[in-house]
Amino acid sequence: VLLLLLLLVAHGAPRRYTPDWQSLDSRPLPAWFDKAKFGVFVHWGLFSVPAWGSEWFWWHWEGERLPSYQRFMSDNYPPGFSYADFGPQFTARFFQPEQWAELFEAAGAKYVVLTTKHHEGFTNWPSSVSWNWNSKDVGPHRDLVGELGAALRMRNIRYGLYHSLLEWFHPLYLLDKKNGLKTQHFVTAKTMPELYDLVNRYKPDLIWSDGEWECPDSYWNSTGFLAWLYNDSPVKDEVVVNDRWGQNCSCHHGGYYNCQDKYTPHSLPDHKWEMCTSIDRASWGYRRDMTMSTIASESEIIAELVQTVSLGGNYLLNIGPTKDGLIVPIFQERLLAVGKWLQVNGEAIYASKPWRVQSEKNTTFLWYTSKESDVYAIFLHWPENGILNLKSPETTSSTMITMLGIEGDLKWTQEPQEDLLISLPSLPPHALPVEFAWTIKLTDVK
């Protein structure tokens, strides 16, 4: 028996994880996620029908009963209109998953995360535990999760599934809360069957859990599900999960950390993390009352991407399609701008690692990344005198310095114990490879 055990160990017998955080947190993060760096988040559901205020429309209207939402409904819908009445209007009539996948590929996204179910409970796939409250029975009469997954995999884009653990108004969830969470009727009948179904049916590369904050992980049965996911599921070797699995789990337990929406650390964290943010700063879902004042600019988005990757994170940028399944032009424009920038500068982003110094707080707002023996200095503002001043790198006799997107070496000087001074190309703005955030590649520096 001992010999057999030794042989199994020698040949890499798969490790079994137990349903506790100490064991689950010891699982190595599958390598693809850190290499990916950039993904697209898609918030799409019944909230895309009223398309007003935010994707929390139902809660603001009938949970908090905010006057502005009450007024919106009385001004635009007949008396007695219920949230369920939005179901047939969620048509996805113009949803063409191949076009979405083409756009996401052109944006340079290496993974895409789709909302399979938000806090409203409507599922974008034919869930057997969401009878008559899913996209197959109502509205589009289509399996939206399955269709997008097939289109993305044709282009080798990883597929992530967002899933909310809670549902604001589900009777079983309200009953469990009334019982002080001493019962788990909702988890047993709804949450867990959905998660197992999503994994077995669609074999996702990533599970983006949310809606955890009202209850401890013991109520959600999170550790039991994750132990199955890591040990016995069809995606056990490649699947990645985030950290939203119960009260106090965020930023402490799980595969990688979201910590909170739009999380931005000030220094290099010691755990893999992801910044999720939205092109529309005021909402995750599409809204008709969106204005340009809340739309992130191309330079803001790229600056966030650069800072996030320099600090070891992934950048997940959100869009909200319309109820018809269209991605409005302003969202397309922003995604394509990221893709255009990555075509030139992707070498400094994809599969990169944080360098020993992450940034220099000078007039150029400069961030570093690294890959093997190369260091990349990405500066957000062009110096007025055309000389880039770097304090951190130390050159060697074999150092070479170039700019991504421009052929030829750059001239530079560095005296002992002094800053590295790099002469940038003397080109008119239209001749530069990108409009903002330029990358200097340093080969063989200390």
What would your notes on this structure say?
Helix 6 packs across helix 7 (144-153) and helix 8 packs across helix 9 (185-202). By secondary structure, the protein is of the alpha/beta class. It contains 13 helices and 15 strands. The chain is globular and about 75 Å long. It has two domains: 17-348, TIM Barrel, CATH 3.20.20.80; 359-445, Immunoglobulin-like (Sandwich), CATH 2.60.40. Strand 2 (111-117), helix 7 (144-153) and strand 3 (158-164) form a beta-alpha-beta unit. It is 28% helix and 18% strand. It holds the Pfam family Fucosidase_C. Homotetramer. Residues 358-443 form the Alpha-L-fucosidase C-terminal domain. GO terms for molecular function: alpha-L-fucosidase activity.
Element layout with pairings:
Elements: H1 2-10, H2 21-24, H3 31-36, E1 38-42, H4 57-63, H5 67-76, H6 97-106, E2 111-117, H7 144-153, E3 158-164, H8 171-178, H9 185-202, E4 206-210, H10 217-220, H11 222-231, E5 240-241, E6 273-278, H12 298-310, E7 313-319, H13 329-345, E8 359-360, E9 366-371, E10 374-379, E11 387-390, E12 395-403, E13 412-413, E14 420-423, E15 438-445
Parallel strand pairs: 1-2, 1-7, 2-3, 3-4, 4-5, 6-7
Antiparallel strand pairs: 8-9, 9-10, 10-15, 11-14, 12-15, 13-14
Helix pairs in contact: 4-5, 6-7, 6-13, 8-9
